[in-house]
Amino acid sequence: MLKYRNLVFYLAIYALASCSSERNTFTNRMYHNTTARYNAYYLALEKVEEVENTIRSSHEEDYAEVLPVFYPIDSAVIDQNEELLKDAYSMASKAIDWHKISKWVDDSYFLIGKIQHMRADFDDAINTFKFLNVNSKDDHVRHLALTQLLRAFIDLRKFDDAAFVIDYLSKENGISKENKQYLYLTLAYYYEVRGERDGILSALDKAVDLTTDPKEKSRINFILGQLYQRAGFDAFAYDYYQKALKGNPPYERAFFSQLYSQQVAELEKSKDFKNVRKYYDDLYQDSKNSELRSVILYEKAQFELKQQNRDEGIRLLTLAAKEDGGNIKQKGYIYNRLSELYFEDIKDFRSAKFYLDSAMGNFKETDRAYQTISRRKKVLDEYVVHYDLIQYNDSLIRLSGLTAEEQELIAENFIKGEEQRLINEAAQKNKQKSTGIFDNLLAFGGSKGSGSTFYFDNSTAMQQGSLEFYRVWGTRPLEDNWRRSSKGFQQAIGQTLEEEEAGIIIEDVTTQPDITLPSKEELLKNIPRDKSTIQQMKMEMEESYFQLGKVLFFDLKEAESAMGYLHSLLEQFPNSNRKPEVYYTLYLVAQEAGKPFEKYKASLNREFPDSQYTRSLNNPSQSSGAQGNRVSGDRYKEAYELFMTKNYLSSRSLINQTLKEYPLTKNTDKLLLLDIMNANHLDGKVVYKQKLETYINNVNDAQLEKLAKNMLSALTGDITMPPPISRIDSVGDSNLLVKDTINAAPEIIKEQLIYKENMGQTHIFILALNPQQVQETTNLTADLESFHNSGFSNARLRTGTISINKDNTLVIISPFSNAEKALDYRKKFLTEFNTEGLNAGQKSGSFVISIENFQQLNKRKDLEEYKDFYKEAYK
Fold first, then answer.
1. Where are the stretches annotated Disordered (predicted)?
2. How does the average pLDDT of the chain come out, rounded?
3. What whole-number distance in Å separates Cα of residue 571 and Cα of residue 574?
4. Staple partner for 848: which of 305, 327, 732, 822, CB 3.0–4.6 Å?
């Protein structure tokens, strides 16, 4: 018995000795290898793989675009699975700390680096992978770490570093088949991010041969099919689509593989159009494709459009938009295609804008199509704002000229007509015919081509008059409201096509909305009754005619339509302050349209000989460009120095010479205002006042306009304006006039500020960048995320961007519960944050702002105005 007890004692001592993480004996190594692999490392790997599976399952494939090589890492998914990653990180760390002599230490370090990468802790992840490359004796782990390091550099768009890793790996020997497969996928990702299709094809061709997982092999083959189809190699595309059908792929991918393989093999080349249409109709009727019917209709519409059957294509797209289920992005593509048709073919920009609204509602900001759509939408938004205002104001002004009895009669007839229209709509819904998008936009009246300009016949005027007889619009998503029609689409486009002829049967399940018609009093109260209101509405119309002409010419490339609106401005407002610029714009428009244009130049020289636009046409070679901006800026500073030393004649001479040689630059308005300041000393108060009034009516810069108004107020005696200070803060600053005039009249500026101090309100931090700086700071977002994770991990800060105008993009960090916390963040940002392309001067231009004040800033678009307030309120 004693011997047995002694044996147990010695075995226990031996086991404890084996548990040591330092002693490098065979027994000890075997113990730690087994324990590390099947306990800590195994559990960590299991949790990481669970998160990776969630990333894959949460990703919704967009088959309208080439599928991404890697499933994108969604930060929302990472946040939702933070506990899993935290546990995995802890387990991997224990595998390292408790089993230091285990051969699974390097694998555990790799898992830690992978978790850091998934969390977007790029600095830590990169250091971990570099550590493994230098210290690991396991080539398998080292090569895997180098490939993951390459992927991190690609994520950060650090292509020079990525190229170095690629070169380094190309010289490595003994890379395993598994690691080669992942390396080739990562190379494909590198070329994908850089937009180099040939590189993607080459890398994926090699990766697919090394892939053993049937499902992954199917996906890679599908991507290759998409790439070859877009490159025009239909035979190759067909082969890869057929290969993608193998490996038991998800039904949706199998469907698209079959659809696209038929396209490249038959549909694009077939002359038997009846057979092609039947193919789509059979797909549609197949119950297995019920979730993909919008796709089928979209593809059939694309086929019809290629056959120049535009009306049928639009009809099919309209039906596709009504289908329930399926990929939400597909609806985005449908609306975007409709927008393109109305924009490019029909030239109905108003309809195009509303389709684009619906398209954007179905895309995320991170989607590839979003940025393209948003740029086009900004232009169309501006068009619709001015177009609608002209329609609305014009119709109300016309109504104001009628007698009260005539106004009441029109209102009564309109209400009766609307009641009858709703009755007809209800009857229409009982018919077995497909419905379309609209008879005119917003359920009634007013498209570009045929819409009336009269208030009671025009949808725009009615809406802007706050006549909410379609109150349903306020309670349902935009994409499901504006496009609903009160008439069949065939009626809207002059067709009477039955579903049987289309080969597709669609049941209209649209329910009748709860509609409230306006009263006669509601209609009549919007008609202006006094001259001042009518005059204000005319001034708004004058500006909208001008802006609409510019949008049509410069952005929409519609020269003849632009001429029409600009001529309307001249006819209706012959004394417009915009007249010089209108002549100038008409000169450019007519020249491009191949119409007589010299008459506009003659009108400028005759009526406005001293205008900068006249000078520009008389000196076209010097009117703009980088050289003009640079030289005019330098001369402005010199002329300002002369003004400050009371050399008014010399200052004026230099200004006139500059305006003659460089009539239209970014410094023109400042030069003109400086010349007016000279006039105060050379020409007397009467001339000075006249020039100020003319300048205020023509200047486009809101800040300079405000300053000119202050100068005029000081002259007329409303307020007293101190003389300008005799100090120039920065010789290299071309905004001296603005700065010194602000400094010269602080009381005036403060009176006009609309910003309010509210230090307890929620604040945001803003970094303002110009377009060039945005391009230079490609790693900004990623570096900000790392900065937040390291210094503000519990603050739940979010990063976003917004463009308030063409010159300023705001990087927004939010939220901060009050001004103090926002200012603390800014202090750390200035001292601790670094990213490539962002210097100390640009960082110092950052500021904080309350939510209430940001709404004003976003409305007014004047950064300098707010910064003046910021310097006073937050100093």
1. 611-631
2. 78
3. 6
4. 822
Is residue 323 one of the residues assigned to a domain?
no
Torsion from C-alpha of 219, 220, 221, 226, nearest 10 degrees: 90
Q: Please indicate, yes or no, whether residues 722 and 667 belong to a single structural domain of this protein.
A: yes
Render pLDDT for 73-82 as a digit per residue (tens, 0 to 9): 988 899 999 9
User: Domain ends where: 250, 283, 305?
Assistant: 250
Tell me the C-alpha distance between 312 and 458, whole Å. 27
Do residue 102 and residue 193 come from a single domain?
yes
Q: Which two tokens stand for residue 462?
A: 């009615």
- Taking the complete model, does pTM exceed 0.70, yes or no? no
pLDDT given for residue 762 in this prediction? 75
Distance CA 122, CA 143 (A): 19
Convert 418-442 to b/e letters by CB count within 10 Å (16 or more is b). beeebeebeebeeeebbbbbbbbbb
Length of the chain: 875
Residues 591 and 651 in one domain: no
User: Is residue 172 helix, strand or coil?
Assistant: coil
Instruction: Say whether both 694 and 814 belong to one domain.
Output: no
On whether the CB atoms of residues 270 and 285 are closer than 8 A, the answer is no
DSSP assignments along 545-566, one per residue: HHHHHHIIIIIS--HHHHHHHH
CA distances from 460 to 421, 446, 477, 550 (A): 18, 7, 19, 21
**Residue 609, CB half-sphere, CA atoms under 13 Å: how many?**
1
Same structural domain, 99 and 150: yes
Residues 6+ apart with CB under 8 A from 82: none
Contacts of 302 (CB under 8 A, 6+ apart): 313, 337
- Indicate which CATH number applies to the domain containing 664: 1.25.40.10
Match 């090394």 to its residue by tokens.
210
pLDDT in tens, 579-632: 998 998 999 899 888 889 899 999 999 998 878 788 778 776 555 556 677 788
What does the alpha-carbon distance between residue 688 and residue 323 come to, in Å, rounded to a whole number?
Answer: 67
- Verify that 631 and 548 share a domain, yes or no: no
Give the DSSP H/E element, type plus range, for residue 763: strand 763-769
pLDDT value, residue 216: 95
Q: In this structure, are 596 and 629 located in the same domain? A: no
Contact of 302 with 335, CB cutoff 8 Å? no
Quote the CA–CA distance of 813 and 795 in Å, as a whole number.
11
Q: What pLDDT digit, counting tens, does each position of 292-304 carry?
A: 899 999 989 988 8
Q: Say which residue the tokens 């009176």 belong to.
A: 751
Among residues 133, 131, 93, 138, the alpha carbon closest in space to that of 111 is found at 93
Q: Where are the beta strands (DSSP E) in 551-655?
A: none
By residue range, what is the domain housing residue 605?
Answer: 541-609
Here the CATH number for the domain that contains residue 552 is: 1.25.40
DSSP, res 363:
S
- Over residues 341-392, the pLDDT tens digits come to 999 999 999 999 999 999 988 888 878 788 888 888 888 999 999 999 999 9
Distances (CA, A) of 667 to 233, 625, 631, 737: 53, 12, 10, 11
CA 735 to chain centre: 30
The count of structural domains within the chain is 4
Q: Is 218 within the bounds of a domain?
A: yes
What is the 3 state secondary structure string of 77-125? Answer: HHHHCHHHHHHHHHHHHHHHHCCCCCCCHHHHHHHHHHHHHHCCCHHHH
Are 330 and 296 a contacting pair, CB within 8 Å? no
Give yes or no: residues 631 and 670 share one domain: yes
Q: Which residue has the higher pLDDT, 27 or 442?
A: 27
The more confidently predicted of residues 102 and 587 is 587
CB 826, CB 767: distance < 8 Å: no
Tell me whether residue 495 is in a domain.
no
Domain edge (last residue) among 218, 250, 282: 250
Token pair in block for residue 210: 């090394």
pLDDT of amino acid 493? 28
